[in-house]
Amino acid sequence: MPLAHPEIADRERLIFALDVADADSARQWITRLGDSVQHYKIGLELLTCGAYFELLAELKSAGKRVFADLKLHDIPATVTSAVKGMARHAPDFLTVHAYGAALRMAAPHKGQTRLLAITVLTSMSDADLVESGVAAALADVVVQRARAALAAGADGLVCSGLEAARLRQELGQDALLICPGIRTEPGGDDQQRTVDVRQAFLNGADYIVVGRPIRQAPDPVASAAAIQQQIALALAQIKANG
Questions:
Q1: Is residue 32 in some structural domain?
Q2: Over the stretch 182-212, which tens digit does the pLDDT of each residue have?
Q3: Least crowded by CB within 10 Å, which of 26, 92, 111, 211?
């Protein structure tokens, strides 16, 4: 399978999950990681600290890319208003749950921000999906929601790396695929559907989101650099085989 979006800078494909509780901690991580990370995810945990939009602006001013992971999910009018508001701050990506009515109404108001549809959270297993009232197979649900979201105006999808290959096969090369749940070692936390760095890209990912494997590493900078090297090797393999 050829590389879907070769125009993406290799070092921007690693998105570091800045999942900390306060602005000072966030700024310390940004300073600490320096040039080893060019792309940051800022989500709900930072939203509660009161400095979310200041941090977003600081990252953009520093030349970093910003993935605003707010997982918007409400009635279409409310999601649309939230997308309009976020567009004023111009994050590169903004997440919205994959419901067609909300995406259709919100997409015309996204500005320069690209909307990413959440399919099924990577913390969910087949059993969790059944418990939530959805009886279909998890992989089928991901594809169904992905197809509907793209038709409604989403620019890309957030999915497990386990489903990325099937999404590429069935939906083509145009959509951006962003894969969280990346683990360098198996098990140990709440993520259920995980792959490693190399497999995510071989399966068709454009970006990966990595948090705890970097934050909890003895040397986070070295860990980020090692992941960047793994990304470069995976991309070289894809290009060589494409």
A1: yes
A2: 876 655 445 556 689 999 999 999 999 999 9
A3: 111
Examine residue 175 and state whether it is found in any structural domain, yes or no: yes
Nearest Cα residue to 209 out of 56, 53, 11, 14: 14
Domains held by the chain: number: 1
Give the C-alpha separation, 11 to 37, whole Å: 7
Cα 40 to Cα 14, 76, 134, 138, 158, distances in angstroms: 8, 27, 32, 28, 15
The whole model's pTM is what? 0.92
Render pLDDT for 50-88 as a digit per residue (tens, 0 to 9): 999 999 999 999 999 999 999 999 999 999 999 999 999
Residue 144 confidence class, pLDDT cut points 50, 70, 90:
very high
Residue 153 lies in a domain: yes
| 5 found inside a domain | no
- CATH number for the domain spanning 60: value is 3.20.20.70
Whether the CA torsion 97, 98, 99, 103 is positive or negative: it is positive
Secondary structure percentages of the chain, helix, strand, coil, to 5: 50, 15, 35
The predicted pLDDT at position 188 comes to 47
Q: How far apart are CA 189 and CA 163, in angstroms?
A: 20
The residue segments making up the domain with residue 47 are 10-241
User: Are the C-beta atoms of 18 and 46 separated by less than 8 Å?
Assistant: yes
Residue that the structure tokens 């508001």 belong to: 85
Residues annotated as catalytic are: 71
